[in-house]
């Protein structure tokens, strides 16, 4: 069944010229300099950026929302940046947060600790009497890497609609954002708390930019999608947004919550050459870690990995099992989700077919990595799948035997499709499926509706080439992050689509799907998922979802579908069931 596609009107007027420098960044300086004075932030001067279909829009970049988390503020709750008495230069983006991108071959360190800044993009053409809906994006990157630099997370496609204000921001990553000593000394979750503080900044200041603080949609992809869902489950962020979109990640993913974080903090200290780290009090441990230079802290993670760059996400959110008014989670979000004990808001969640490529491609495309993985296949696969610790003894062995039969035809060696599928199902599709079932059984979907999408459009560019470091030897399909190519312009990574191409029309339709949700709490096209519409007895269907797919003659279509490999989800139900 095809759903009518939104019309795509291409504006052919040429945007103002921009210049690219040798590092790949862009010079956005144009004659106009818009100015905004916000009550709790101060006055700031922005710039005008060229659009993709429209001529231009306004950009305010590098606005501080928190004090620099350095010195005594390293490993502490973020502190709001005070109102500035000086005019803030918001014409260029600030540096990314310090990180090492292990999603690409030969990762290098980059960024700085002083990184808690945000960007606000708004249309030039707007009705000043009406406040626009606000969309706040949480970037992807497994909580250890990521950027909202406009050369990677470009706002152009959203600004083309002239219907919303877009906010993007940096938050602390890796050890800096998620170290925890399991007590009030270093409680952890700093990256998530940075996100909450950015949302509070939006509530206090976005009206000055023409945005409606009572119409905020929080959205993110991968760890950003997990984060967005976690904010809905956390009382720490309650009331700061009014709709959530979780792309390729929900709060119940296996890499979502870290256990034994004190042990990890001690191991980190040991690899920073802090003597007797395992016997120091947590207060002394904190003091010692604050004195270590940032680069040493960043590199310490490499020594803790169990194989190559794995686990990708070493430092993660934690449950704060102690009294603290600033706690983000005081219990596991899976338990909160199961009880429905949170303030739900209208919710969109969706996936792409081959999510598991985010890690599998780099291994499958490297002869050396593939060989060493196969040499210790059973142990490494078990580590990759992060089976719960409660799954012990004979049951764990039987489960691994079942997984090898199901995905690898009983052979204890990697295959392209088997490896992609097992990482996809365990890491993304099974949590997605469980989130749907739990949401519709615990939430009033008449008040807080659930919408699903499935992005399966394959265009000329793919993140598989990013993960492999070049061309791939195998068609991995529509992989993790490929949907982002159609939401955000990324000139540093991929060339632009021709404006009259099918790919550009897909982008326009996909962006419109989310923008309509931000405007009306109902995406376009839409189909709701509820307890009444979920096909509980089916082995190959879930609730209706909106699918974006290729069509004959280099076209695309948007349709309503139900197809899903539920039998695989039931397989994982059996593997992970609790006694």
From the spread of the alpha carbons, the general shape counts as globular
Report the structural category: alpha/beta
| Count of alpha and pi helical runs | 16
Question: In angstroms, what is the radius of gyration?
Answer: 23 Å
Beta fraction: 15-25%
Low-confidence stretches: 1-31
Helix content: 25-40%
What is the makeup of the main sheet? Answer: 12 strands, mixed
Straight-line N-to-C gap = 42 Å
Number of strands: 19
Mean pLDDT: 93
What does this structure look like?
The protein is α/β, with parallel strands linked by helices and 579 residues long. Helices cover 31% and strands 17% of the residues. It is built from 16 helices and 19 strands. Helix 1 (156-161) links the parallel strand 11 (132-138) and strand 12. Mean pLDDT is 93; it is low at 1-31.
In short:
This protein has 579 residues and is of the alpha/beta class.
Looking at this protein, list some descriptive labels.
alpha/beta; 579 residues; single chain; 16 helices
Give the secondary structure arrangement, pairings included:
Elements: E1 19-20, E2 26-27, E3 35-38, E4 42-45, E5 47-50, E6 56-64, E7 88-89, E8 99-100, E9 109-110, E10 117-122, E11 132-138, H1 156-161, E12 165-169, H2 174-178, H3 190-205, E13 211-221, H4 223-233, E14 243-247, H5 261-270, H6 282-290, H7 294-304, H8 333-339, E15 347-351, H9 357-364, H10 367-375, H11 377-385, H12 393-408, H13 416-442, E16 450-456, H14 464-468, H15 502-520, E17 528-529, E18 541-551, E19 555-563, H16 566-576
